[in-house]
Amino acid sequence: EFDEERATRPSQPNVILLLMDDWGFGDVGAYGGPQQNGSDTKVKTPNIDKLARGGIIFTDYHTANPVCSPSRAALMTGYYPARLSIHTALNSNAVDNKREGQANFLNLSVPTVTELFHKAGYLTGHFGKWHLGGTKSPPAPPPTAYGIDEAATFNSNDPDHQLGNSSQPYWAGLSSTLIIDNAIQLIEKARNTSKPFYLNLWFHIAHAKLDPTPEQLQVYNNTCTRPSTNQTHCPQQIYWSSQTDADTQIGRLVDALHQHEVANNTLTVFTADNGPEDPMVYHNAKGTTGPFRGRKRSLYEGGHRVPFIVHWPARVQAGRVDNSVIGGVDWLPTVAKLANVSVDQTVLEAIDGEDISQAILNPKGSPARYRKKPLFWEWRYAVAGNCWNQAPHLAMRNGQWKLLMNADGSRLELYDMQLPSTSGKNTTYYELTNVAGQEQDIALLMKKDLLAWLQTLPSGPHFISPNLGCGQYPFPHTQPEDIQP
Fold first, then answer.
1. Rounded mean pLDDT of 344-363?
2. Which distant-in-sequence residues (6+ apart) come within 8 Å of 193 by Cβ?
3. Cβ–Cβ under 8 Å, residues 55 and 312
């Protein structure tokens, strides 16, 4: 029999993490949304926008890495992924992982958010992408080994619980439907057993390959004046159609929450694993980073600053825009605090994330909050696309300041990330003007902290792309080669 009091009391909310793949900061209507040049056509994300209007839009959220697997590992554990020897997308071949200095899968000894919620009595589910280990030899654990009760995934070593048949036509186009179908079934099960639920819904969209159905493409029939000679549909139509269908399925999910009378006390978070793919890698990758430089794989903002929307009618005031600095590593301690899920103090002291729940619960008009600790990033591999996106391979954000550099001290770049006023232009906010020369004391102090953090990472083979961070272009301005440590 359904226990309504237990399911709806604020101390034990349901939790849904909607994690999109390769969505940029500007890929959602609520964040400005891209518009086709020369037309009134804009990307349609009405259901995501509705979540944003009913909750909080965070403008300064950062993934822990500009690529898939490491970003996901941070969400699951609260650790910087480099500490777990997960530096880029995990390969299904152990030989390739070894060559890149990587683990084969997420270490089972590390506590995960799903494990914590499972132990707290939640029904836990993971539907969609996994990408935290898929090797056959050594065999990567299935998702259910990480405190997950029910799973239907891809990019995993779990052949008995796959998300449909990925070899079928239009699988990519139908993947969002499959994810939400599984989610609704788990919600029904949780309601029937009087248990709260925790759901990881990790979408395929908008990762390559995109394969929208003819019906999905109809939404943007007039997006392009004319596809190129060898195309039946233009890349923008394919990209937006895929995103809008994902939005439609999110709308189905929200409807199901209302139908089962659990919407009010369900904490729903919408975000992405990293910035958008570069069109030079996949021609249909038409995502936008909004005003920011960089894309997927880059440590400039466009590679790791993505949407972060929080919706929770029972506890969160609607219509807020918050500029607090938040990192992907903060998810585990924050959601555990919000749900009153116990976490050992030794775990909280060991992880890199911090509890930012107060930023979520604050009333409208509250000042933005800086993290107590800096955020750090590393990226060891090539950066695809235009040289404009070729960032150094280390970065750090401390308060309003962001520093980038290579481990050898080259390309020291400092930017003031304080939100500029509407009355003037702040080119350093958009990582266009390097101010390390003018702010030498800040640059040197942050450089020292960033190199000290690098020394705390596990030892092992370090695969560094020979083309990484070379910076053979005139930007950013004012290269401070004369600054010495």
1. 96
2. 123
3. yes
